Amino acid sequence: MKLDITKALAFVSPDAVKALEPSVATANKALEEGTCAGNDFLGWMHLPSQTSAAFLAEINKCANVLRQNCEAIVVAGIGGSYLGARAVLEALGDNFGWLKPSDSPRILFAGNNISEDYLAELVEYLHGKKFGVINISKSGTTTETAITFRLLKKMCEDERGKETAKKVIVAITDAKKGAARTTADKEGYTTFVIPDNVGGRFSVLTPVGLLPIACAGYDIEALVKGAQDMEAATGLDVKFEDNVCSQYAAVRNALYQTGKKIEIMVNFQPKLHYMNEWWKQLYGESEGKDKKGIFPAAVDFSTDLHSMGQWIQDGERTIFETVISVDNVNHTLAVPTDEENLDGLNFLAGKRIDEVNKMAELGTQIAHVDGGVPNIRISIDKLDEYNLGQLIYFFEKACGVSGLVLGVNPFNQPGVEDYKRNMFALLDKPGYEAESKAIKARLA
Ligand code: PA5
Fold first, then answer.
1. For a substitution probing ligand 1, which of 142, 287, 411 has the most ligand atoms within 8 Å of its CB?
2. In the predicted model, what is the mean pLDDT of residues 414-439?
């Protein structure tokens, strides 16, 4: 993985980035020594190097049981309990899901919304199919996931029988507490633990991400190896100039200080759409607090150049872009010659589609920089498990550093509780009587 910040340095001087070196060093040290705010949630820091081959074998063993017994596997989870797995599966899969090996179960995601139509259509699709469920919830009490699991557990038991259900339902949750743990222990499901010291959005390299990825047939050893190599490449002993996490954290904070309040994560491969979604949660939930923080936005190019391109080129100059570029695509396909040439595109005949895409990428970078948008470029060799493992750990580590440089606790999320309190009050949840009365009086 390479990081190029040179196209951001026209907007913020190299000195301004360098000036952040001491606070980046302090942040790196505090993360390493566990002395920063949120230090009870630093389990992700050395997770890659601490993941043993035996542990990965255990995950693969469970995945094989699910693969052998299921045509479809539903991953029930929300936020950090599903976005990482989805990001990796989408990046490694084919765009349409048509080309997956016929012996691989279809992986479906649910428990990430409260849409009656979504769930009714899922139930309809699963009806009569051999399906299993991976129920993922760190707290074990998240409403979206719990409603979905309640439906799927009953359906699985009704259609496949209690004994088979026990084999094809797996819980990934807290070691001791929460409804997901209680149910799993009572029913005798296979379980994996989300470590106490790993927050949801930093949990993709725990069983939360690893089991669904293994169920889809991907190489979790290579994924973890990529993360291990990035962990080693961004340690305390690595110089500021050579440390990609330190550089990314410094340049985005320097840009923020000059009024660039929005970072747009850009891809030129639709398979990276969910990587952007995962990144949005990681950075949004980690940095958006105490009335500060860069707003994380995302676009898929060139698709969104035809919708958001105008704003990015010409709107308020409060944005910067970070592009994830993939050097080598997995297929070879050229633009065909057309005798009539009615569309005038014969000048492209014989060129790889990816060459056209790369010129769209370069042309966009030049146009946006000319238009006042600082550009950071992350490039990876190709979309495979190893490179994705690197990218994941890179974003996690840089996020911890960046949040601390910003001066917030990157590892809590107090703001996400407010809507839940109101929802429970409006639904008359026992224990919420006072809140219920207050909110209903406000609405009267
Ligand atoms: O990052 C987070 O902590 C959140 O996004 C959670 O992952 C999300 O709310 C799901 O929580 P849980 O895993 O407890 O169901």
1. 142
2. 92
Ligand 1 in contact with 402 (CB < 6 A)?
no
Q: Which residue is it, tokens 């990876």? A: 380
Q: Does ligand 1 have an atom closer than 6 angstroms to the CB of 181?
A: no
Do 7 and 365 form a contact (C-beta atoms < 8 A)? Answer: yes
Neighbours of 119 (CB within 10 A): 17
Q: Specify whether the CB–CB gap between 208 and 84 falls below 8 A.
A: yes
In this structure, the number of other CB atoms found within 10 A of the CB of residue 387 comes to: 21
Q: Determine if ligand 1 sits within 6 Å of the CB of residue 209.
A: no
29 residue type, one letter: K
Structural Rg of the chain based on CA atoms = 23
Q: Which DSSP category does 81 fall into?
A: G
The b/e string for 49-85 (b: 16+ C-beta within 10 A; e otherwise) is: eebeeebbebbbebbeebbebbebbbbbbbbbbbbbb
User: 285 CA to middle of ligand 1, Å?
Assistant: 10
CA of 328 to the centre of ligand 1 (A): 34
Beta strands at 2-4 and 375-380: parallel, antiparallel or unpaired? antiparallel
Q: Which tokens sit at 52?
A: 């043993």
**Pocket flag, ligand 1, residue 201 (CB < 6 Å):** yes
What pLDDT score was predicted for residue 340? Answer: 97
Closest CA to 11 of 369, 377, 310: 369
Q: What is the whole-number distance in angstroms between the Cα of residue 19 and the centre of ligand 1?
A: 35
What is the rounded distance in angstroms from the CA atom of residue 25 to the CA atom of residue 44?
19
Output the pTM of the full model. 0.97
Task: Please provide residue 42's backbone torsions phi and psi, each rounded to the nearest 5 degrees.
Answer: -110, 15
Whether the upstream peptide bond of residue 379 has omega within 30° of 0, thus cis, is: no
Closest C-alpha to ligand 1, atom 3? 200
Encode pLDDT of 123-136 as tens digits.
999 999 999 999 99
CA distance 235 to 245: 9
**Joined tokens for residue 64:** 């094989």
Asked if residue 139 has its Cβ within 6 Å of ligand 1, the reply is yes
Could you report the per-residue pLDDT of 283-314, keeping only the tens digit for each? Answer: 999 999 999 999 999 999 999 999 999 999 99
By residue count, the chain amounts to 444
- Non-local (6+) Cβ contacts of 102 within 8 A are none
SS3 state of residue 138: coil
Quickly list H helices, 45-195: 47-50, 53-69, 83-92, 116-126, 143-160, 162-168, 179-187
Say if CB 86 and CB 109 are below 8 A apart: yes
What's the CA-to-centroid distance between 144 and ligand 1, angstroms? 11
Q: Which residues does the annotation mark as catalytic?
A: 285, 306, 420
